[in-house]
Amino acid sequence: MQARASDRSLTQRLARAFIAIAVLIIATLVVTGACFAAVLGHFEPAISDLITGRDAVDAVQNGMLDEETALRGYLSSGNQVFLSAYYGGQAEILAGDNASLGLATQPDLVRAIVAMRVAQQRWFSEWATPALAIERAVTSPTAQQSFLLSGKALFDSYRTASDAVDAQVTADISNEQMEEHDVVLLALTIAFGMLALTVAVARRQHRGLRASIVLPINELLSTMRKVTAGDLTAQTAVVGPPELREVAAELGRMTTTLAEERSRIAGVEGESRSQAERLGLIVNVGREISGSLSLRYVARAVGKAALAITGFASARMWIINEERHELNVVQDTDLDLGVQRDDTSLILGEGLVGRTGQFGRLLATLSNGSLATEYRTGTRVTALAVPMIVGARIVGVLELMSDDALAVDESSIDVMHSLAGQAATAVEAARFHQSADELSHTDALTHLPNRRRLELDLDLEIARSLRYNRPIACIMLDVDNFKAVNDIHGHQAGDEILSEFGSAFARSLRETDTAYRYGGEEFCVLLRETDADAAAIVAERLRAEIANRFAGSRGSAMVTASLGVAAIPSDAIDAKTLIAAADRALYSAKAAGRNCVVRATPLRSVRPSTTRGRSRPAAGPPRPVVIIDAPKAS
Questions:
Q1: DSSP single-letter state for residue 389
Q2: What's the DSSP call for residue 27?
Q3: Within 10 Å of residue 611's Cβ, how many Cβ atoms?
Q4: Considering only Cβ atoms within 10 Å of each terminal Cβ, which end of the chain, N or C, has fewer?
Q5: Cα 562 to chain centroid, rounded
Q6: CA 229, CA 252: separation in Å to the nearest integer?
Protein backbone atom coordinates (compact mmCIF):
# COMPACT_ATOMS: atom_id res chain seq x y z
CA MET A 1 0.00 0.00 0.00
CA GLN A 2 2.86 2.40 0.88
CA ALA A 3 4.59 1.62 -2.42
CA ARG A 4 1.44 2.38 -4.37
CA ALA A 5 0.96 5.66 -2.49
CA SER A 6 4.50 6.77 -3.26
CA ASP A 7 3.96 6.02 -6.94
CA ARG A 8 1.04 8.40 -7.17
CA SER A 9 1.83 11.61 -8.97
CA LEU A 10 1.44 15.00 -7.37
CA THR A 11 -1.62 15.67 -9.52
CA GLN A 12 -3.31 12.45 -8.35
CA ARG A 13 -2.69 13.23 -4.70
CA LEU A 14 -4.09 16.70 -5.01
CA ALA A 15 -7.10 15.36 -6.94
CA ARG A 16 -7.89 12.79 -4.19
CA ALA A 17 -7.68 15.46 -1.51
CA PHE A 18 -9.89 17.78 -3.51
CA ILE A 19 -12.54 15.09 -4.17
CA ALA A 20 -12.74 14.10 -0.49
CA ILE A 21 -13.20 17.66 0.70
CA ALA A 22 -15.61 18.47 -2.14
CA VAL A 23 -17.86 15.48 -1.27
CA LEU A 24 -18.10 16.56 2.37
CA ILE A 25 -18.86 20.15 1.42
CA ILE A 26 -21.57 19.02 -1.03
CA ALA A 27 -23.12 16.78 1.66
CA THR A 28 -23.19 19.73 4.07
CA LEU A 29 -24.88 21.87 1.42
CA VAL A 30 -27.46 19.10 0.75
CA VAL A 31 -28.41 18.85 4.45
CA THR A 32 -28.64 22.64 4.71
CA GLY A 33 -30.76 22.78 1.55
CA ALA A 34 -33.13 20.09 2.87
CA CYS A 35 -33.56 22.07 6.07
CA PHE A 36 -34.42 25.21 4.16
CA ALA A 37 -36.83 23.24 1.95
CA ALA A 38 -38.65 21.86 5.01
CA VAL A 39 -38.88 25.25 6.63
CA LEU A 40 -40.01 27.08 3.51
CA GLY A 41 -42.15 24.26 2.02
CA HIS A 42 -43.97 22.92 5.10
CA PHE A 43 -43.61 24.79 8.37
CA GLU A 44 -43.89 28.36 7.15
CA PRO A 45 -47.03 27.71 4.99
CA ALA A 46 -48.68 25.72 7.82
CA ILE A 47 -47.98 28.42 10.39
CA SER A 48 -49.15 31.09 7.95
CA ASP A 49 -52.46 29.19 7.33
CA LEU A 50 -53.09 28.81 11.07
CA ILE A 51 -52.46 32.49 11.71
CA THR A 52 -54.76 33.42 8.80
CA GLY A 53 -57.50 31.12 10.17
CA ARG A 54 -57.18 32.55 13.66
CA ASP A 55 -57.46 36.08 12.29
CA ALA A 56 -60.56 34.99 10.32
CA VAL A 57 -62.22 33.61 13.50
CA ASP A 58 -61.51 36.93 15.24
CA ALA A 59 -63.03 38.77 12.25
CA VAL A 60 -66.22 36.65 12.49
CA GLN A 61 -66.51 37.42 16.20
CA ASN A 62 -66.06 41.15 15.52
CA GLY A 63 -68.78 40.98 12.84
CA MET A 64 -71.17 39.30 15.26
CA LEU A 65 -70.47 42.01 17.82
CA ASP A 66 -71.36 44.62 15.18
CA GLU A 67 -74.66 42.79 14.43
CA GLU A 68 -75.51 42.51 18.13
CA THR A 69 -74.79 46.18 18.73
CA ALA A 70 -76.91 47.16 15.71
CA LEU A 71 -79.90 45.05 16.78
CA ARG A 72 -79.78 46.33 20.36
CA GLY A 73 -79.74 49.90 19.09
CA TYR A 74 -82.72 49.23 16.87
CA LEU A 75 -84.70 47.61 19.71
CA SER A 76 -84.01 50.49 22.05
CA SER A 77 -84.80 53.25 19.56
CA GLY A 78 -86.84 51.69 16.81
CA ASN A 79 -84.67 53.55 14.28
CA GLN A 80 -83.85 51.39 11.26
CA VAL A 81 -80.61 53.35 10.66
CA PHE A 82 -78.99 50.96 13.14
CA LEU A 83 -79.68 48.08 10.79
CA SER A 84 -77.01 49.36 8.31
CA ALA A 85 -74.33 48.45 10.86
CA TYR A 86 -75.98 45.03 11.09
CA TYR A 87 -75.54 44.39 7.40
CA GLY A 88 -71.90 45.59 7.54
CA GLY A 89 -71.23 43.07 10.28
CA GLN A 90 -72.96 40.39 8.21
CA ALA A 91 -70.47 41.00 5.31
CA GLU A 92 -67.55 40.82 7.72
CA ILE A 93 -68.87 37.48 9.09
CA LEU A 94 -69.24 36.06 5.58
CA ALA A 95 -65.63 37.01 4.69
CA GLY A 96 -64.33 35.58 7.95
CA ASP A 97 -66.21 32.29 7.46
CA ASN A 98 -64.67 31.87 4.01
CA ALA A 99 -61.16 32.67 5.27
CA SER A 100 -61.42 30.23 8.18
CA LEU A 101 -62.32 27.25 6.00
CA GLY A 102 -58.63 26.29 5.91
CA LEU A 103 -58.76 25.44 9.62
CA ALA A 104 -61.10 22.56 8.85
CA THR A 105 -58.20 20.67 7.26
CA GLN A 106 -56.55 20.34 10.68
CA PRO A 107 -57.86 17.11 12.31
CA ASP A 108 -57.57 18.39 15.87
CA LEU A 109 -59.63 21.50 15.02
CA VAL A 110 -62.62 19.84 13.30
CA ARG A 111 -64.71 19.25 16.45
CA ALA A 112 -64.02 22.70 17.89
CA ILE A 113 -64.86 24.39 14.58
CA VAL A 114 -68.13 22.40 14.25
CA ALA A 115 -69.14 23.43 17.80
CA MET A 116 -68.32 27.07 16.98
CA ARG A 117 -70.34 26.98 13.75
CA VAL A 118 -73.35 25.36 15.54
CA ALA A 119 -73.31 28.05 18.23
CA GLN A 120 -72.98 30.70 15.53
CA GLN A 121 -75.92 29.27 13.56
CA ARG A 122 -78.16 29.12 16.71
CA TRP A 123 -77.34 32.74 17.41
CA PHE A 124 -78.29 33.68 13.88
CA SER A 125 -81.49 31.62 13.67
CA GLU A 126 -82.85 32.27 17.16
CA TRP A 127 -81.87 35.87 17.75
CA ALA A 128 -79.65 37.78 15.26
CA THR A 129 -82.12 38.35 12.41
CA PRO A 130 -83.81 41.63 11.52
CA ALA A 131 -87.23 39.97 11.32
CA LEU A 132 -87.10 38.81 14.94
CA ALA A 133 -85.80 42.18 16.03
CA ILE A 134 -88.65 43.99 14.28
CA GLU A 135 -91.17 41.57 15.80
CA ARG A 136 -89.84 42.13 19.32
CA ALA A 137 -89.63 45.86 18.82
CA VAL A 138 -93.48 46.18 18.92
CA THR A 139 -94.00 43.99 21.99
CA SER A 140 -93.92 44.95 25.62
CA PRO A 141 -90.74 45.97 27.41
CA THR A 142 -90.75 42.75 29.37
CA ALA A 143 -90.70 40.71 26.15
CA GLN A 144 -87.88 42.87 24.75
CA GLN A 145 -85.82 42.36 27.90
CA SER A 146 -86.33 38.61 27.67
CA PHE A 147 -85.34 38.68 23.99
CA LEU A 148 -82.13 40.59 24.79
CA LEU A 149 -81.16 38.18 27.55
CA SER A 150 -81.64 35.18 25.30
CA GLY A 151 -79.42 36.83 22.66
CA LYS A 152 -76.71 37.41 25.25
CA ALA A 153 -76.83 33.77 26.30
CA LEU A 154 -76.59 32.59 22.71
CA PHE A 155 -73.64 34.97 22.02
CA ASP A 156 -71.84 33.83 25.19
CA SER A 157 -72.23 30.24 24.04
CA TYR A 158 -70.73 31.18 20.65
CA ARG A 159 -67.89 33.10 22.31
CA THR A 160 -67.01 30.08 24.44
CA ALA A 161 -66.81 27.87 21.32
CA SER A 162 -64.82 30.56 19.46
CA ASP A 163 -62.34 30.93 22.32
CA ALA A 164 -61.85 27.16 22.29
CA VAL A 165 -61.02 27.29 18.55
CA ASP A 166 -58.68 30.26 19.09
CA ALA A 167 -56.88 28.44 21.92
CA GLN A 168 -56.51 25.28 19.84
CA VAL A 169 -55.18 27.24 16.85
CA THR A 170 -52.70 29.07 19.07
CA ALA A 171 -51.53 25.72 20.46
CA ASP A 172 -51.16 24.33 16.93
CA ILE A 173 -49.11 27.38 15.88
CA SER A 174 -46.83 26.89 18.89
CA ASN A 175 -46.42 23.20 18.05
CA GLU A 176 -45.54 23.95 14.42
CA GLN A 177 -42.98 26.56 15.50
CA MET A 178 -41.39 24.12 17.94
CA GLU A 179 -41.17 21.44 15.27
CA GLU A 180 -39.64 24.00 12.88
CA HIS A 181 -37.08 24.92 15.54
CA ASP A 182 -36.24 21.23 16.10
CA VAL A 183 -35.74 20.65 12.35
CA VAL A 184 -33.47 23.70 12.01
CA LEU A 185 -31.48 22.67 15.10
CA LEU A 186 -31.12 19.13 13.72
CA ALA A 187 -29.96 20.48 10.34
CA LEU A 188 -27.44 22.79 12.01
CA THR A 189 -26.14 19.92 14.12
CA ILE A 190 -25.70 17.74 11.05
CA ALA A 191 -24.08 20.63 9.13
CA PHE A 192 -21.62 21.36 11.91
CA GLY A 193 -20.87 17.66 12.16
CA MET A 194 -20.18 17.52 8.43
CA LEU A 195 -17.96 20.61 8.69
CA ALA A 196 -16.07 19.03 11.57
CA LEU A 197 -15.63 15.91 9.48
CA THR A 198 -14.45 18.09 6.56
CA VAL A 199 -11.85 19.77 8.78
CA ALA A 200 -10.68 16.37 10.02
CA VAL A 201 -10.36 15.04 6.46
CA ALA A 202 -8.58 18.23 5.37
CA ARG A 203 -6.09 17.92 8.24
CA ARG A 204 -5.44 14.29 7.35
CA GLN A 205 -4.92 15.20 3.69
CA HIS A 206 -2.66 18.08 4.78
CA ARG A 207 -0.50 15.73 6.85
CA GLY A 208 -0.33 13.29 3.95
CA LEU A 209 0.61 16.01 1.44
CA ARG A 210 3.14 17.49 3.85
CA ALA A 211 4.83 14.13 4.29
CA SER A 212 4.89 13.42 0.55
CA ILE A 213 5.53 16.93 -0.82
CA VAL A 214 6.66 19.54 1.72
CA LEU A 215 9.36 17.45 3.40
CA PRO A 216 10.91 16.29 0.09
CA ILE A 217 10.80 19.88 -1.20
CA ASN A 218 12.56 21.09 1.96
CA GLU A 219 15.25 18.49 1.36
CA LEU A 220 15.61 19.69 -2.23
CA LEU A 221 15.85 23.32 -1.03
CA SER A 222 18.52 22.35 1.48
CA THR A 223 20.56 20.76 -1.31
CA MET A 224 20.06 23.84 -3.51
CA ARG A 225 21.29 26.12 -0.72
CA LYS A 226 24.44 24.02 -0.42
CA VAL A 227 24.98 24.27 -4.16
CA THR A 228 24.39 28.03 -3.98
CA ALA A 229 26.98 28.25 -1.21
CA GLY A 230 29.50 26.54 -3.52
CA ASP A 231 29.25 22.90 -2.45
CA LEU A 232 28.84 21.23 -5.84
CA THR A 233 29.22 17.77 -4.29
CA ALA A 234 25.87 17.97 -2.50
CA GLN A 235 23.32 15.37 -3.63
CA THR A 236 19.81 14.48 -2.49
CA ALA A 237 17.83 11.22 -2.41
CA VAL A 238 14.19 12.26 -2.53
CA VAL A 239 11.29 9.90 -1.90
CA GLY A 240 7.87 11.14 -2.87
CA PRO A 241 5.91 11.81 -6.04
CA PRO A 242 7.59 11.03 -9.39
CA GLU A 243 7.79 14.74 -10.19
CA LEU A 244 9.96 15.49 -7.15
CA ARG A 245 12.17 12.49 -7.84
CA GLU A 246 12.71 13.83 -11.36
CA VAL A 247 13.57 17.26 -9.93
CA ALA A 248 16.13 15.66 -7.62
CA ALA A 249 17.70 13.80 -10.57
CA GLU A 250 17.87 17.02 -12.61
CA LEU A 251 19.42 18.82 -9.64
CA GLY A 252 22.14 16.19 -9.48
CA ARG A 253 22.87 16.60 -13.19
CA MET A 254 22.87 20.36 -12.77
CA THR A 255 25.45 20.27 -9.97
CA THR A 256 27.68 18.09 -12.13
CA THR A 257 27.38 20.57 -15.01
CA LEU A 258 28.09 23.46 -12.65
CA ALA A 259 31.25 21.78 -11.43
CA GLU A 260 32.42 21.45 -15.01
CA GLU A 261 31.54 25.08 -15.73
CA ARG A 262 33.44 26.21 -12.64
CA SER A 263 36.57 24.64 -14.04
CA ARG A 264 36.04 26.37 -17.37
CA ILE A 265 35.30 29.74 -15.78
CA ALA A 266 38.46 29.56 -13.73
CA GLY A 267 40.41 29.45 -16.99
CA VAL A 268 38.98 32.75 -18.25
CA GLU A 269 38.78 34.55 -14.91
CA GLY A 270 41.87 36.57 -15.59
CA GLU A 271 40.53 37.75 -18.93
CA SER A 272 37.19 38.61 -17.39
CA ARG A 273 38.89 40.65 -14.66
CA SER A 274 40.80 42.59 -17.28
CA GLN A 275 37.63 43.14 -19.28
CA ALA A 276 35.80 44.26 -16.15
CA GLU A 277 38.49 46.83 -15.44
CA ARG A 278 38.16 48.20 -18.96
CA LEU A 279 34.38 48.25 -18.71
CA GLY A 280 34.69 49.97 -15.36
CA LEU A 281 36.80 52.58 -17.06
CA ILE A 282 34.10 52.95 -19.73
CA VAL A 283 31.44 53.37 -17.04
CA ASN A 284 33.49 56.00 -15.24
CA VAL A 285 34.13 57.86 -18.46
CA GLY A 286 30.47 57.61 -19.41
CA ARG A 287 29.45 58.97 -16.01
CA GLU A 288 32.01 61.74 -16.33
CA ILE A 289 31.08 62.88 -19.83
CA SER A 290 27.32 62.38 -19.44
CA GLY A 291 27.14 65.29 -17.03
CA SER A 292 29.20 67.62 -19.25
CA LEU A 293 28.01 69.68 -22.19
CA SER A 294 31.54 70.91 -23.00
CA LEU A 295 32.81 69.43 -26.26
CA ARG A 296 36.45 69.96 -25.33
CA TYR A 297 36.02 68.34 -21.92
CA VAL A 298 34.30 65.29 -23.45
CA ALA A 299 37.03 64.91 -26.08
CA ARG A 300 39.83 65.12 -23.50
CA ALA A 301 38.22 62.49 -21.21
CA VAL A 302 37.57 60.08 -24.11
CA GLY A 303 41.12 60.45 -25.46
CA LYS A 304 42.68 59.58 -22.10
CA ALA A 305 40.38 56.57 -21.66
CA ALA A 306 41.19 55.26 -25.17
CA LEU A 307 44.92 55.35 -24.43
CA ALA A 308 44.40 53.51 -21.12
CA ILE A 309 42.33 50.79 -22.80
CA THR A 310 44.46 50.06 -25.88
CA GLY A 311 48.00 51.09 -24.87
CA PHE A 312 48.50 53.42 -27.88
CA ALA A 313 50.78 56.44 -27.43
CA SER A 314 48.47 59.24 -28.62
CA ALA A 315 44.86 59.87 -29.56
CA ARG A 316 42.96 62.46 -31.55
CA MET A 317 39.22 63.10 -31.82
CA TRP A 318 37.88 64.29 -35.15
CA ILE A 319 34.40 65.82 -35.60
CA ILE A 320 32.63 65.83 -38.97
CA ASN A 321 31.63 69.20 -40.43
CA GLU A 322 28.74 68.17 -42.67
CA GLU A 323 28.44 71.54 -44.40
CA ARG A 324 32.09 71.53 -45.52
CA HIS A 325 32.38 67.72 -45.91
CA GLU A 326 35.48 67.57 -43.76
CA LEU A 327 36.72 66.45 -40.35
CA ASN A 328 38.28 68.78 -37.78
CA VAL A 329 40.42 67.92 -34.76
CA VAL A 330 38.88 68.90 -31.43
CA GLN A 331 41.33 67.04 -29.14
CA ASP A 332 44.93 65.85 -29.52
CA THR A 333 46.67 64.22 -26.54
CA ASP A 334 50.09 65.14 -28.02
CA LEU A 335 49.32 68.82 -27.42
CA ASP A 336 49.65 68.15 -23.68
CA LEU A 337 53.24 67.06 -24.44
CA GLY A 338 53.95 70.16 -26.54
CA VAL A 339 53.80 68.32 -29.91
CA GLN A 340 52.18 70.37 -32.68
CA ARG A 341 50.57 68.82 -35.77
CA ASP A 342 49.77 70.51 -39.08
CA ASP A 343 46.97 68.20 -40.20
CA THR A 344 44.05 69.52 -38.14
CA SER A 345 41.47 69.05 -40.90
CA LEU A 346 40.80 66.33 -43.47
CA ILE A 347 38.45 65.87 -46.41
CA LEU A 348 35.94 63.04 -45.98
CA GLY A 349 37.27 59.93 -47.72
CA GLU A 350 40.93 61.05 -47.44
CA GLY A 351 43.35 58.75 -45.61
CA LEU A 352 42.67 56.48 -42.67
CA VAL A 353 40.53 58.94 -40.70
CA GLY A 354 38.71 60.32 -43.76
CA ARG A 355 37.67 56.87 -45.00
CA THR A 356 36.53 55.81 -41.52
CA GLY A 357 34.47 58.99 -41.25
CA GLN A 358 32.95 58.41 -44.68
CA PHE A 359 32.12 54.70 -44.45
CA GLY A 360 31.68 54.28 -40.67
CA ARG A 361 33.95 51.22 -40.39
CA LEU A 362 36.89 50.56 -38.07
CA LEU A 363 40.12 50.78 -40.14
CA ALA A 364 43.82 50.45 -39.26
CA THR A 365 47.29 51.24 -40.59
CA LEU A 366 49.48 48.14 -40.67
CA SER A 367 53.08 48.02 -39.48
CA ASN A 368 54.32 48.28 -43.10
CA GLY A 369 52.39 51.55 -43.55
CA SER A 370 49.59 50.16 -45.76
CA LEU A 371 45.94 50.77 -45.01
CA ALA A 372 43.97 47.68 -43.94
CA THR A 373 40.55 47.66 -45.58
CA GLU A 374 39.34 45.27 -42.88
CA TYR A 375 40.87 44.98 -39.43
CA ARG A 376 41.43 41.48 -38.06
CA THR A 377 41.85 40.84 -34.35
CA GLY A 378 45.47 40.35 -33.34
CA THR A 379 46.95 42.16 -36.36
CA ARG A 380 49.82 44.47 -35.40
CA VAL A 381 49.03 48.04 -36.36
CA THR A 382 50.48 51.52 -35.84
CA ALA A 383 47.18 53.43 -36.12
CA LEU A 384 43.53 52.63 -35.49
CA ALA A 385 40.48 54.69 -36.49
CA VAL A 386 37.19 53.98 -34.66
CA PRO A 387 33.98 55.58 -36.00
CA MET A 388 31.82 57.53 -33.57
CA ILE A 389 28.23 56.66 -34.50
CA VAL A 390 24.88 57.74 -33.05
CA GLY A 391 22.12 55.59 -34.51
CA ALA A 392 22.94 55.52 -38.23
CA ARG A 393 24.74 58.87 -38.23
CA ILE A 394 28.55 59.19 -38.15
CA VAL A 395 29.51 62.01 -35.80
CA GLY A 396 33.30 61.74 -35.88
CA VAL A 397 36.34 59.48 -35.63
CA LEU A 398 38.55 58.48 -32.69
CA GLU A 399 42.14 58.03 -34.00
CA LEU A 400 44.76 56.08 -32.00
CA MET A 401 48.46 56.15 -32.98
CA SER A 402 51.73 54.60 -31.83
CA ASP A 403 55.31 54.49 -33.17
CA ASP A 404 55.56 50.80 -32.29
CA ALA A 405 53.13 48.33 -33.84
CA LEU A 406 50.57 46.95 -31.40
CA ALA A 407 48.14 44.03 -31.50
CA VAL A 408 44.66 44.84 -30.18
CA ASP A 409 42.51 41.92 -28.98
CA GLU A 410 38.83 41.49 -29.73
CA SER A 411 37.63 42.54 -26.27
CA SER A 412 39.56 45.80 -26.52
CA ILE A 413 37.97 46.45 -29.93
CA ASP A 414 34.51 45.88 -28.42
CA VAL A 415 35.31 48.25 -25.56
CA MET A 416 36.58 50.86 -28.03
CA HIS A 417 33.34 50.64 -30.00
CA SER A 418 31.39 51.16 -26.77
CA LEU A 419 33.59 54.10 -25.80
CA ALA A 420 33.22 55.63 -29.27
CA GLY A 421 29.44 55.24 -29.05
CA GLN A 422 29.30 56.99 -25.69
CA ALA A 423 31.62 59.68 -26.97
CA ALA A 424 29.40 60.20 -30.03
CA THR A 425 26.34 60.58 -27.83
CA ALA A 426 28.09 63.05 -25.52
CA VAL A 427 29.47 65.02 -28.47
CA GLU A 428 26.05 65.25 -30.08
CA ALA A 429 24.54 66.34 -26.77
CA ALA A 430 27.18 69.07 -26.42
CA ARG A 431 26.62 70.25 -30.00
CA PHE A 432 22.85 70.18 -29.63
CA HIS A 433 23.12 72.09 -26.36
CA GLN A 434 25.26 74.73 -28.03
CA SER A 435 22.83 74.98 -30.95
CA ALA A 436 19.79 75.09 -28.66
CA ASP A 437 21.43 77.73 -26.51
CA GLU A 438 22.03 79.87 -29.59
CA LEU A 439 18.45 79.37 -30.80
CA SER A 440 16.98 80.20 -27.39
CA HIS A 441 18.79 83.56 -27.42
CA THR A 442 18.07 84.50 -31.06
CA ASP A 443 14.92 86.03 -32.52
CA ALA A 444 13.67 83.86 -35.41
CA LEU A 445 12.37 86.77 -37.54
CA THR A 446 15.16 89.34 -37.32
CA HIS A 447 18.01 86.94 -36.40
CA LEU A 448 18.97 89.42 -33.69
CA PRO A 449 19.62 88.44 -30.07
CA ASN A 450 16.37 88.37 -28.11
CA ARG A 451 15.29 89.87 -24.83
CA ARG A 452 16.61 86.93 -22.81
CA ARG A 453 20.08 87.47 -24.30
CA LEU A 454 19.76 91.19 -23.54
CA GLU A 455 19.05 90.53 -19.87
CA LEU A 456 22.10 88.27 -19.57
CA ASP A 457 24.41 90.64 -21.46
CA LEU A 458 23.09 93.70 -19.65
CA ASP A 459 23.81 92.28 -16.21
CA LEU A 460 27.33 91.26 -17.28
CA GLU A 461 28.19 94.55 -19.02
CA ILE A 462 26.77 96.77 -16.29
CA ALA A 463 28.70 94.85 -13.64
CA ARG A 464 31.88 95.38 -15.68
CA SER A 465 30.99 99.06 -16.20
CA LEU A 466 30.50 99.67 -12.48
CA ARG A 467 33.61 97.70 -11.55
CA TYR A 468 35.91 99.69 -13.84
CA ASN A 469 33.93 102.96 -13.71
CA ARG A 470 33.29 102.98 -17.46
CA PRO A 471 30.17 104.36 -19.19
CA ILE A 472 27.55 102.21 -20.91
CA ALA A 473 24.47 103.38 -22.80
CA CYS A 474 21.18 101.95 -23.98
CA ILE A 475 18.90 102.92 -26.86
CA MET A 476 15.23 101.87 -26.87
CA LEU A 477 13.72 101.97 -30.40
CA ASP A 478 10.11 101.55 -31.44
CA VAL A 479 8.77 101.49 -35.02
CA ASP A 480 6.30 104.34 -35.56
CA ASN A 481 2.71 103.52 -36.51
CA PHE A 482 3.60 99.88 -37.08
CA LYS A 483 0.01 98.78 -36.55
CA ALA A 484 -1.08 100.96 -39.43
CA VAL A 485 1.58 99.36 -41.67
CA ASN A 486 0.23 95.91 -40.75
CA ASP A 487 -3.38 97.00 -41.32
CA ILE A 488 -2.68 98.60 -44.73
CA HIS A 489 0.01 96.33 -46.20
CA GLY A 490 -0.54 93.13 -44.27
CA HIS A 491 1.38 91.32 -41.56
CA GLN A 492 3.74 89.73 -44.08
CA ALA A 493 4.92 93.19 -45.14
CA GLY A 494 5.30 94.09 -41.47
CA ASP A 495 7.44 91.00 -40.88
CA GLU A 496 9.61 91.91 -43.88
CA ILE A 497 10.19 95.40 -42.45
CA LEU A 498 11.19 93.99 -39.06
CA SER A 499 13.53 91.46 -40.68
CA GLU A 500 15.33 94.29 -42.54
CA PHE A 501 16.08 96.09 -39.29
CA GLY A 502 19.03 93.72 -38.80
CA SER A 503 20.72 95.24 -41.89
CA ALA A 504 19.88 98.75 -40.71
CA PHE A 505 21.53 98.08 -37.37
CA ALA A 506 24.60 96.60 -39.07
CA ARG A 507 25.12 99.75 -41.17
CA SER A 508 24.71 102.18 -38.26
CA LEU A 509 26.28 100.44 -35.27
CA ARG A 510 29.87 99.77 -34.32
CA GLU A 511 31.34 96.32 -33.85
CA THR A 512 31.20 96.74 -30.08
CA ASP A 513 27.49 97.63 -30.14
CA THR A 514 24.76 94.97 -30.00
CA ALA A 515 21.17 95.28 -31.20
CA TYR A 516 18.39 93.14 -29.64
CA ARG A 517 14.78 92.58 -30.48
CA TYR A 518 13.05 93.60 -27.27
CA GLY A 519 9.56 92.52 -28.26
CA GLY A 520 6.99 93.20 -31.01
CA GLU A 521 8.20 96.24 -33.00
CA GLU A 522 10.49 97.40 -30.17
CA PHE A 523 14.30 97.05 -30.23
CA CYS A 524 17.11 97.75 -27.81
CA VAL A 525 20.75 98.66 -28.56
CA LEU A 526 23.51 98.15 -25.99
CA LEU A 527 26.43 100.58 -26.46
CA ARG A 528 29.59 99.61 -24.57
CA GLU A 529 32.13 102.23 -23.52
CA THR A 530 29.64 104.94 -24.59
CA ASP A 531 28.26 107.91 -22.67
CA ALA A 532 24.93 109.65 -23.23
CA ASP A 533 26.26 112.20 -25.76
CA ALA A 534 27.87 109.58 -27.96
CA ALA A 535 24.82 107.35 -27.63
CA ALA A 536 22.59 110.18 -28.87
CA ILE A 537 24.79 110.55 -31.98
CA VAL A 538 24.57 106.81 -32.66
CA ALA A 539 20.80 106.94 -32.12
CA GLU A 540 20.46 109.82 -34.62
CA ARG A 541 22.54 107.92 -37.18
CA LEU A 542 20.35 104.87 -36.66
CA ARG A 543 17.15 106.95 -36.97
CA ALA A 544 18.35 108.45 -40.23
CA GLU A 545 19.37 105.06 -41.62
CA ILE A 546 15.90 103.66 -40.88
CA ALA A 547 14.10 106.68 -42.32
CA ASN A 548 16.16 106.63 -45.54
CA ARG A 549 16.00 102.86 -45.96
CA PHE A 550 12.25 102.66 -45.69
CA ALA A 551 11.25 106.00 -47.25
CA GLY A 552 8.50 105.10 -49.73
CA SER A 553 9.66 101.49 -50.00
CA ARG A 554 6.18 100.21 -49.03
CA GLY A 555 4.06 102.08 -51.56
CA SER A 556 2.96 105.43 -50.14
CA ALA A 557 3.94 104.51 -46.58
CA MET A 558 7.20 105.50 -44.92
CA VAL A 559 8.65 103.64 -41.95
CA THR A 560 10.26 105.69 -39.20
CA ALA A 561 11.30 105.01 -35.63
CA SER A 562 11.31 106.81 -32.28
CA LEU A 563 14.34 106.36 -30.03
CA GLY A 564 15.04 106.91 -26.35
CA VAL A 565 18.62 107.16 -24.99
CA ALA A 566 19.90 106.58 -21.44
CA ALA A 567 23.34 105.89 -19.97
CA ILE A 568 25.16 104.81 -16.83
CA PRO A 569 26.24 106.52 -14.64
CA SER A 570 24.51 109.72 -15.76
CA ASP A 571 20.91 108.41 -15.96
CA ALA A 572 20.75 105.08 -14.10
CA ILE A 573 22.53 102.88 -11.58
CA ASP A 574 21.63 99.34 -12.72
CA ALA A 575 20.01 97.37 -15.53
CA LYS A 576 16.45 97.93 -14.37
CA THR A 577 16.75 101.70 -14.02
CA LEU A 578 18.72 101.95 -17.28
CA ILE A 579 16.00 100.22 -19.31
CA ALA A 580 13.33 102.23 -17.50
CA ALA A 581 15.09 105.55 -18.25
CA ALA A 582 15.53 104.67 -21.93
CA ASP A 583 11.91 103.52 -22.12
CA ARG A 584 10.65 106.82 -20.64
CA ALA A 585 12.76 108.70 -23.15
CA LEU A 586 11.25 106.56 -25.94
CA TYR A 587 7.70 107.47 -24.88
CA SER A 588 8.74 111.12 -24.74
CA ALA A 589 9.91 110.75 -28.35
CA LYS A 590 6.52 109.31 -29.26
CA ALA A 591 4.81 112.23 -27.54
CA ALA A 592 7.11 114.70 -29.32
CA GLY A 593 5.79 113.64 -32.72
CA ARG A 594 7.75 110.42 -33.48
CA ASN A 595 10.75 110.01 -35.81
CA CYS A 596 13.07 111.64 -33.30
CA VAL A 597 15.59 110.90 -30.56
CA VAL A 598 15.03 111.85 -26.91
CA ARG A 599 17.69 111.79 -24.21
CA ALA A 600 16.81 110.65 -20.74
CA THR A 601 18.69 113.49 -18.99
CA PRO A 602 18.78 117.25 -19.77
CA LEU A 603 22.45 117.40 -20.72
CA ARG A 604 22.01 119.50 -23.83
CA SER A 605 19.43 120.27 -26.52
CA VAL A 606 20.46 120.12 -30.14
CA ARG A 607 17.78 121.31 -32.52
CA PRO A 608 17.83 120.96 -36.31
CA SER A 609 17.57 123.79 -38.76
CA THR A 610 13.88 123.04 -39.30
CA THR A 611 11.29 123.78 -36.66
CA ARG A 612 10.30 120.77 -34.60
CA GLY A 613 6.63 121.69 -34.57
CA ARG A 614 6.39 122.00 -38.37
CA SER A 615 4.25 119.34 -39.94
CA ARG A 616 5.85 116.97 -42.44
CA PRO A 617 4.36 116.82 -45.95
CA ALA A 618 2.35 113.79 -46.90
CA ALA A 619 5.08 112.69 -49.35
CA GLY A 620 8.76 113.52 -49.14
CA PRO A 621 11.83 112.78 -47.07
CA PRO A 622 11.44 111.79 -43.41
CA ARG A 623 11.40 114.50 -40.74
CA PRO A 624 14.89 115.22 -39.33
CA VAL A 625 15.86 114.22 -35.78
CA VAL A 626 14.88 116.27 -32.78
CA ILE A 627 16.94 115.76 -29.62
CA ILE A 628 15.09 116.99 -26.56
CA ASP A 629 15.33 116.35 -22.86
CA ALA A 630 13.02 113.82 -21.25
CA PRO A 631 11.73 114.52 -17.74
CA LYS A 632 13.54 112.68 -14.98
CA ALA A 633 11.66 110.10 -12.97
CA SER A 634 10.42 111.47 -9.69
A1: E
A2: H
A3: 9
A4: C
A5: 52
A6: 15
